[in-house]
TrEMBL record:
Record GO terms (molecular function): heme binding; iron ion binding; monooxygenase activity; oxidoreductase activity, acting on paired donors, with incorporation or reduction of molecular oxygen
Swiss-Prot/TrEMBL cofactor(s): heme
Keyword Transmembrane: yes
Keywords on record: Heme, Iron, Membrane, Metal-binding, Monooxygenase, Oxidoreductase, Transmembrane, Transmembrane helix
Keyword flag Ligase: no
Annotated TM spans: 6-27
Pfam families, alphabetized: p450
PANTHER family: CYTOCHROME P450 FAMILY 71 PROTEIN, OS06G0642300 PROTEIN
Binding-site residues for heme, renumbered to this chain: 396
UniProt name for this protein: Uncharacterized protein
Gene3D superfamilies per the UniProt record, alphabetical: Cytochrome P450 (1.10.630.10)
Amino acid sequence: MLSDDEAAYTSYCCLLLALLPLLLIFLRPQLHKNHNVAAPPPPRLPPGPWRLPLIGSLHHLVMKPPVHRTMDDLARRYDAPDVMYLQLGEVPAVVISSRDAAREVLKTHDTVFASRPMSLSMRATAHEGLGIAFSPYGHRWRHLRKICTVELLSAARVRSLRAVREEEAARLVAAVAEELSRHGEPVNVSVRVAAFVADSVLRAIVGERFRRRDEFLEVLEVGLKSIKPGTSLGDMFPSSRLLCAFSSTFQKDREFHRKITELVNCAIEQHEERKATVAADDNTGDKDLMGVVLRIQREGAGPDFHLDNGTLRTVVLTACTNTSIDAKRVHGTCYILGFDIPQGALVLVNAWCMGRDPKYWDQAEEFKPERFEEVNVDFKGTYFEYIPFGAGRRMCPAIAFAEANMVLALASLLYHFDWQLPSGISPSEIDMEEYMGITVRRKRDLYLCPTVRVPPHVTA
């Protein structure tokens, strides 16, 4: 004997079974009609390596050399010299490996590719406001870019900081000479040049030597090595809140941001203290970058843009970090060299690969600086086979600032010293192993043996 509930459930099921034929009769014409409608053709994706369920192409990248080399190797093996398609977990990705494809992405369709992907690293700091490097393309980004190019990093501003560069270059030469006279051993050139760059940048920002300079250098060094945007499981499986919440990358980036924020706040305080000690009639407000930013904050950057403290910190950090990261997010369907680029895809421009392509460079892996005397190529974003600072709308705004610092440092070291490799090491034996962090860098420091050079006009 069935209970009342069981009887009702049985009756309900019988009613559904009785109505099912009627439902099929009603839907059959619709199904037949839809069947006759031609399905849209599948997208013509770029070629790429074979993929596995769930993880996509990740098995081609894990436990391999630095990712830029691995992607170059995959592009060659799978006949994708210009554009290659990868599936990084849930994220579709397109790798650009040729000059022509890079021109399409960075110039022809630059507005489609003008935004950067939102990685876990960015989410860790998004509450502060994203800086110029990672802000989505739009009103806010244009204001930040204008502040950097017109106020902070213009040619006139770079010229005004010449005295700072010259003093720090003299300190660099003195430090190398002191280390040479005291120890007589190979000098760690990597550490010396990094200190010169940091001191030049911090003095340009604060107006004097930063009190917590050593701590700042240490934090920046750790951050440049350990933070790898877009490489965590949370970035590759963004729909998984569990992976995002427990990602070590997210926690690491948050800690780095906390420390760097504290140090930038300290720099702002030091600048304010210095300004308070200067006579009121001494117009030093715009002699350093911090003074410029604080003036813009007081006066306002525009009717629809507010430079709050979080944004102020990101603007200051622009001068300390590389903003030419060539990762883009596609907004809208796009076609590159005949291939469909899916909306929302991560687009990676492999500038390393193009800078070593034998189609553009003779003996591409050899150190031949004289090659630039024979070809009309520069690094200002016009020649897409050589874009160390990026190109297009997202090109690094600090080219003039970086060039002025590095040219002076290199000229000073070459003018005052002759350089040799340590005893027993030939040029072919130099360890050039790379390390992938925010940027690609040497994994191990460079040691060289300097000899004080007496200029010919001094001995004449």
